[in-house]
Amino acid sequence: MKIGIMGAGSIGSVLAQRLSAHGHHVKIANSRGPETIPADVLATGARAVPAADVAADVDVLITSVPLIRVPDLKPLLTDLPADAVVIDTSNYYPARDGHIAALDRGRVESRWVEEHLGRPVVKAWNAITAQSFVAYANPSGTPGRIAIPVAADDDDDRALGMSLVEQTGFEGFDAGTITDSWRQQPGSPVYCTDLTAEQIPAALGKAIAERSPKRRDLAMHIIAELMGDPTSDLGKDFLVRVNRLIYN
Ligand SMILES: NC(=O)c1ccc[n+]([C@@H]2O[C@H](COP(=O)([O-])OP(=O)(O)OC[C@H]3O[C@@H](n4cnc5c(N)ncnc54)[C@H](OP(=O)(O)O)[C@@H]3O)[C@@H](O)[C@H]2O)c1
């Protein structure tokens, strides 16, 4: 498949490495230009291109930028083929993105993204930390393999998202429609807690819409405080341990 990736940060870079290693034709862009994308991101065959070129002639476009930057992408999508599937990895963090009124009122994050991109999206790879994404890729059948929830309104698009998640080393879990995707947003029990496919249904089921944003902000506060303290011994899987404690 021909895949464009908009965003070459913690998540976009790993997606480019894994999906090109799997045999896809991958191009990747950031906001500063192809020459700024590190060589290791391109080591398995992905091509660095200007942001204006990433959407043209692709089967799949993955958007992986800070949520507040999503509206900037619309003018870059004029050449995106009408039948290309858009997969978005973004999450809303007010501490990073500033307060976005619609999201503060409880709007589903991916619906806001869809409005700003002008396209339906598949929500995938949003609910795994960058650290776990790098460290815990495993082949299908590995005991305890981590699963990643994938939501989309279109069944075929969701199945495609799940198969691409699978190709990046994680089990793709069918999490239903975008309307229900608030269940995998920051602060929910499934969010960045490294669960298996067997554990995910219970986690999605016990999500509480009003509670998740409060827990998200509480966790971010604690994480920022601890990470800013040079005397803290955070240890392995620190983020996942904090998330499991607070989001459960
Ligand atoms: N980090 C995580 O643990 C994690 C996990 C799951 C999901 N997510 C979500 O996934 C998204 C990406 O996260 P990340 O951690 O990979 O972010 P990141 O490391 O901050 O990287 C963001 C990337 O987006 C690019 N970008 C920003 N504005 C752009 C624009 N207008 N056009 C083209 N490229 C643009 C940046 O390019 P420049 O550097 O050139 O500006 C950079 O390559 C976020 O929404 C985040 O919430 C993150």
Automatic annotation (TrEMBL):
InterPro entries: NAD(P)-bd_dom_sf (IPR036291), P5C_Rdtase_cat_N (IPR028939). It holds the Pfam family F420_oxidored. Residues 2-92 form the Pyrroline-5-carboxylate reductase catalytic N-terminal domain. This is NADP oxidoreductase. Gene3D superfamilies: NAD(P)-binding Rossmann-like Domain.
